[in-house]
């Protein structure tokens, strides 16, 4: 190995030591050795900042984006944390800043995360240099455990007292029932519990199957479309139902009047139907007799109509034979003439008949006048 090679190696070792020294100084003192642009400062106001100091890491969703530069107390209370953020780090005004205190698993960390709540289509505004935002500090795990220990102590004591009470009650039950009876009761209780659990398991399986069926029905696009259509038709259906109910109420009101009128008519008919009901058998017998007579009359009328329709009968021949009809017509005319002549003769006989009636009346009133007239030579009776 020549002298030049040794000098080269010494130079390389010295350069590497210098680089390592600069890196250590930058990591431990907050001095940044960067090849990119300078970081920009922002300020965060928090109520408290446990474990936060210079060079405390600042992260965005767990990724390192900067470090704390300084911390100051505020006059109105709280802590102002100044931090340097790497250029191009995605921090927005809507992000939530939370201080995670130091714990057994690591030092304190300031973390930014997306808080959401932006309207659809809008873009978040990035944080600019020198801007101040408000953050919050998460509870310290050690303080939470201490507070939990203080709060849980009385609860544990109460649980112990309750356990003592349950043990005392169990002893009293065993003393009352006896060991064998208590054992039998416990066995029965265990069997009943096992049966109940089996039934409960079957019920849950049935419920799961029912839920799956309901989910399948709900996810059916055809059924969903039908349900949506039915839901859209519900207001119109309700309006129509309301109108129908109103019309039904009006109809019932009118029907009530009709029923009242019918009741009045029935009351009036009751006075008529009650006597008829009392004479029911008699009226039934009369109705049967009337029907029988009507049937006989209809039979005779049918025979009469049949005889009339036959051409051999008198009326049939009169209807069907024109010569016979002419003869009958001539006979009726002659009969009318004879009746007229009889009427004239009757008019001529009216006076003698009147005189005869007067004579008979006188004879009836005074029969002795006939004998006296026959014996006497006086004038005759007129």
UniProtKB/TrEMBL annotation:
InterPro entries: Mce/MlaD, MlaD_Phospholipid_Transporter. Pfam families: MlaD. It comes from the Bacteria. The chain crosses the membrane at residues 12-33. Residues 39-113 form the Mce/MlaD domain. Keywords: Membrane, Transmembrane, Transmembrane helix. Coiled coil: none annotated. The keyword Transmembrane helix applies. This is Mce related protein. The lineage of its organism: Bacteria, Pseudomonadati, Planctomycetota, Planctomycetia, Pirellulales.
């Amino acid at each position: 190995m020549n002298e030049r090679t040794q000098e080269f190696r010494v130079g390389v070792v010295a350069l590497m030591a210098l680089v390592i020294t600069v890196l250590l100084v930058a990591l431990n003192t907050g001095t940044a050795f960067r090849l990119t642009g300078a970081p920009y400062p922002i300020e965060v106001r928090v109520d408290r900042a446990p474990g936060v100091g210079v060079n405390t890491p600042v992260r965005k969703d767990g990724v390192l984006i900067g470090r704390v530069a300084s911390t100051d107390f505020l006059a109105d209370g709280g802590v102002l944390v100044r931090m340097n953020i790497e250029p191009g780090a995605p921090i927005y005004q809507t992000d939530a800043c939370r201080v995670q205190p130091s714990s057994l698993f690591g030092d304190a960390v300031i973390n930014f995360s997306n808080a959401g709540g932006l309207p659809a289509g809008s873009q978040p505004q990035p944080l600019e240099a020198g801007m101040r935002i408000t953050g919050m500090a998460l509870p310290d795990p050690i303080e939470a455990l201490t507070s939990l220990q203080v709060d849980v102590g009385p609860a544990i004591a109460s649980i112990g007292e309750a356990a003592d009470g349950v043990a005392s009650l169990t002893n009293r039950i065993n003393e009352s029932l006896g060991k064998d009876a208590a054992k039998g009761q416990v066995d029965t209780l265990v069997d009943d519990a096992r049966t109940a659990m089996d039934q409960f398991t079957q019920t849950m399986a049935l419920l799961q199957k029912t839920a799956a069926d309901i989910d399948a029905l709900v996810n059916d696009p055809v059924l969903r479309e039908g349900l949506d259509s039915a839901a859209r038709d519900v207001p119109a259906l309700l309006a129509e139902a309301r109108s129908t109910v109103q019309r039904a109420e009006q109809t019932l009101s009118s029907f009530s009047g009709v029923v009242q009128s019918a009741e009045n008519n029935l009351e009036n008919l009751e006075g008529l139907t009650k006597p008829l009901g009392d004479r029911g058998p008699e009226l039934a017998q009369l109705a049967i007799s009337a029907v029988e007579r009507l049937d006989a009359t209809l039979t005779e009328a049918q025979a009469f109509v049949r005889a009339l329709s036959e051409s051999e009968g008198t009326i049939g021949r009169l209807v069907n034979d024109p010569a016979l009809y002419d003869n009958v017509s001539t006979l009726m005319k002659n009969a009318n003439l004879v009746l007229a002549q009889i009427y004239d003769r009757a008019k001529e006989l009216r006076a003698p008949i009147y005189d005869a009636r007067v004579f008979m009346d006188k004879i009836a009133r005074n029969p002795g006048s006939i004998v006296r007239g026959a014996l006497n030579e006086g004038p005759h009776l007129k």
